[in-house]
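#lab-general

N.A. 3:47 PM
ok so I finally got the sequence cleaned up, no stray characters, all 294 residues accounted for. can someone with queue access submit it? mine expired

B.Y. 3:52 PM
send it over

N.A. 3:53 PM
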Amino acid sequence: MTRAVLVLPEGQAAGLVAAYNQAVAVRRRQLALSIALGIAALALSAYGAEVNPYTFWTKLGNFTSYFDRLLTLDSGDRVWTNPADWFWGIRRWSRLLGETLLIAYVGTLSGAVLAFFGCFLASRNLIRSALLRMVTRRVLELLRTVPDIVFAMIFVVAFGLGALPGVLALTMHSAGSLGKLFTEVVESVDMRPLEGVTAAGGSWFARVRFGVLPQVLSNFASYVLIRLEWNVRGAAVIGFVGAGGIGMDLLVAIRKFYYADVSAMLLMIVVCVVLLDMISERLRHRLLAFETHV
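B.Y. 4:20 PM
back already:
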C-alpha cells in the first residue's frame, strides 16, 4: 500500500521554517537570560553571605588532607591494611550505634503518633474551626522550626545526659515535620467517601476512620520510614550534646584528633544508614504496590 506524502510549496515551507527558527531563537534567548540571571543572583547571594571563592580554592587542600588523615592509622599505615587496629573499639561502638538506632526508632514512632493526631486537627477539609486549625498548625511549625539539636540541649539540661533527651528531641522535631506532611496528605484525599459516611449518619470520628484512613495510611507509613532514615543520622548528631548514642564518642574522637577512630565510626554509621535505606525502600515499594492493587 502506497501513501502520498504532502509537500508544501517552497514559499509556504520557507515561511513556516522561518517562524519555527524564530520561535527557537526566542526560547534560546529566554534560556540564556534565565541562566544569566541565575548566575547573577548566585553571585550576589554569595557576596552577601561573604562566601569567598578564593578562600575556598586556597583552603581546598586542607579538606582533602583531612580525609587523607582519616584513612591513616597512628602507625602511618592505611586503615584497610590493619582492620583489627582500625576497629579496635567495635564492641563499644556497636553497642552505642545500637543505642542510636533505638533512639531514632522510638523518637520517630513517638513523633509519628503525635503527628497522626495533630494532622486531622490541622486539615481544612476536616475541621471547620479556623482557630483550632491555626493553633495546631502553629504548634507543628514551632516543633519543626526548632532544630533537633537545640531540643536535645534543652532536654539534656532538664533530664541529664542519656538516651531520654535524644528520644524527646527527635520526637518533637519528627512530630512537626511529619505533621506537616500528614496534613497535606489528608487535605488531598477524595471527599466522596467522607460524604458517603456523613450521609449515612456517621460522626466526625467515623468520617476519619472509614473515609480518610483507608486513603492515607500507606502514605503515612512511607513518610515515617523516610523520617526514620533521617532520624538515624540526627540521633548520631544530637549525641554531640550528650543525648545518648554514638555521637559523644564520635565528638571525643574528633576533638582528640583520633582520625582512624573517626573514620571507623563514620563507616559504621554509613553502612547502617545504607542498610536501613535499602530495607525501607523495599517496604515503601510494597506499600505502594499494595495500595495500587487495592
